Amino acid sequence: MDFNIEEIIIRVLQNTVSEEEMHFFSEWIHLTDKNKKLFFELKNIYDYRKGDLYLDGVELETGWDRLWAKLQKSKSKDEIVVTKKKSILFNRWKIATTAAVAGFLIWGVTLFYIRQETSVTWVEVHNPACSLPKTIHLPDGSWVQLNASSYLRYPKKFKNEERKVYLDGEALFNVIKQENKLFIVHSNKQQINVLGTRFNVMDYSTDAYSVTTLISGKVQLETFDEEKNLRDRIVMSPEQQLRFDAYTGQITLNQTDTHEVISWTNGIYSFQDVPLQQITDRLSKMYGVTIIVTDKESRAEKYTGKFSSNQSIEEVMRIINFHGEFRTIFSNDSITIALK
What are phi and psi of 153, to 5 degrees? Predict the structure, then answer.
């Protein structure tokens, strides 16, 4: 099947991507750091689209050309060879996609650069795969532990009545309470409003679900549909975990062991009665690989166990396959798990 990576990126951002397309996207985003950077920039643009600012055609075209020139200039000769097919698709997309999609992206690019040039200075932190958790101290005294394959964006100085940060991935937040100054975490599928509390968020834009765990304090969590319209608003209490499936819109709220949830900050990943697909999704983020489980029923089969970040991916695969029911095929940065 032929895939158009640009159209797939749009569907990833809208949470309408198919499973097969998600596998292709996963391979593409892990191909080079440039691909990851491009996706994060497009995601920033997509997040900004809720604003009411509209620009004229000249500004739109100028914005597009500036980003396009930047991307072309940053490519190495080796990357051009590796991604030749994908570059052709990008050129085709620039010329042939619908006016609505192209207009949205061009407008967003311009807005991205305009915002970069305002008085707000943004700090962007990327913690790559195979990395230890990174501690980030925010300007208000709050601090964040950022997991591997995760991205955090926050202003160098909080202004006005709100403290806003943007997350793609997993992070443990320790928020300092400030009266009448709300702390807001924007992620791909949800928004979390807090005053002062401790909570864990796992919301990778490449996953169909998000998981939020409240450790102490109280948060108000808002979920959105693919058009970014408010879907639900839920107030969480300590030791509650909320799982949101963006495909189905289903919300599950349960009590949980918060110590197990945040064990990743100590290099331990715990899974309690979790589907294999969710485990492999998480391992993909830890090790920077694409893991494909070919059998649909196997993806839904639930497992319980713990892995250490010090273990190799080969060792982890052997643990998952302790019954010997799978064939595990390693190929570059991809792993295929298939029934024998």
Answer: -130, 125
The neighbour count for residue 251, using CB atoms within 10 Å, is 14
CA 203 vs CA 14, 93, 215, 243: distances in Å? 14, 28, 17, 10
Question: Among all chains, which residue has been given the structure tokens 């490449």?
Answer: 206
Q: Which amino acid belongs to residue 288?
A: G
pTM: 0.69
Q: Checking DSSP bridges between strand 143-146 and strand 162-174, what pairing results, if any?
A: antiparallel
Give the HSE-up count for residue 120: Cα atoms under 13 Å, Cβ half-sphere: 17
CA triple 192-45-137, angle to 5 deg:
50
Q: Return d(Cα 333, Cα 289) in angstroms, integer.
A: 5
Rounded-to-integer distance, Cα 212 and Cα 206, Å:
16
pLDDT tens digits for 217-250?
999 999 887 777 888 999 999 999 999 988 888 9
Name 251's bridge partners: 244
Q: Which residues are within 8 A (CB) of 164 and not within 5 positions of it... i.e. 6 or more apart?
A: 154, 155, 158, 184, 186
91 CB neighbour count, 10 Å cutoff? 10
- Residue 325 · residue 319 · CB < 8 Å: no
Radius of gyration for the alpha carbons in the chain, expressed in angstroms and rounded = 20
